[in-house]
Amino acid sequence: MSEATDMNSSALSAAKSQLRSLMKQRLAGLSQESITSQSARVFDSLSQFNPYVNAKRVAVYLSMPRGEIQTDPIVRHALSSGKQVFVPYLHKSGLRPSDGPTRLMDMVSLKDIEDYESLQKDKWGIPSVDTATVHERKRSVGELDGNRSEDVSLDLILMPGVAFDVDPMSKAIRRLGHGKGFYDYFLHRYALAASTEEHGRPAVLLYALALKEQLLSPSSGESVPVGPHDQPIDGLFLGDGQIKESAKGGAN
After folding, report:
1. What is the DSSP string of 9-53?
2. Range in 16-25, 126-135, 185-194, 198-207 the model is least confident about
3. What is the pLDDT of residue 246?
4. What is the pTM of this model?
């Protein structure tokens, strides 16, 4: 890697960290009433969104108590609608730090409402899957125990994020995550799994859920810094009821 590339990578990392800090301060000032009402608007939009209505298998993040769209109503609605619902599960990768990330995210299935309600909250207040139950669950990438035959393809992934914007050139929606790279690496592994299957998997739709304050305005002079491994998303559900979509080809 050249010195110039190193500098670019370092500058990119610094720009992302700066924007995360700014957004953390901005979102901390939001009232719980605003978050609740915006979450309700997102749920209303999503529940009428055809790709969600028609989806059989939906992956959705389990939300923190503050600072992001709340997903509890979505999880309950999807389960009660007969969809297979998958949620994030973090686990050790078994890799050395020099070989790759030491922790991975996979998407594992919920059995039913009772199963969902039994999840214990972690130190961030996020409901979390118990390691002892993972072997009973379906998973989207069979890397937990190497059993690829249990892989399940997903129709729609609903993602969190810290900030979003629209690329002025490609019109693709760009996402700034929390900085751990869990979703980027998961999507990379998911694509690899798809490429090794005989008939391939249909492309999964990637949509994020965001408070309206998380969408950066072009007039603000702020933008989401992106690198070569940052994947655009297909669309964004906003807390004001809007659904923004990437221009065709922009999220491929």
Report:
1. HHHHHHHHHHHHHHHHHHHHTS-HHHHHHHHHHHHHHHHT-HHHH
2. 198-207
3. 93
4. 0.89
Per-residue pLDDT averaged across 243-248, rounded? 90
Nearest to 190, CA basis, from 125, 142, 244: 142
- The string of DSSP letters for 82-95 reads T-EEEEEEEEE---
Residue with tokens 């973090």, as numbered in its chain: 90
Tokens (6 digits) for 85? 């619902």
Structure tokens at 88: 């994030």
**Between the CA of residue 14 and those of 6, 96, 120, 160, 223, what are the distances in Å?**
12, 25, 34, 21, 14
What is the per-residue pLDDT for 6? 44
Cα→Cα distances 64→61, 74, 131, 160, 170, Å = 9, 14, 20, 10, 32
DSSP class of 131: G
19 within 8 A of 27, measured Cβ to Cβ: no
Please name every residue paired with 166 in a beta bridge, in sequence order, or none if there are none: 173
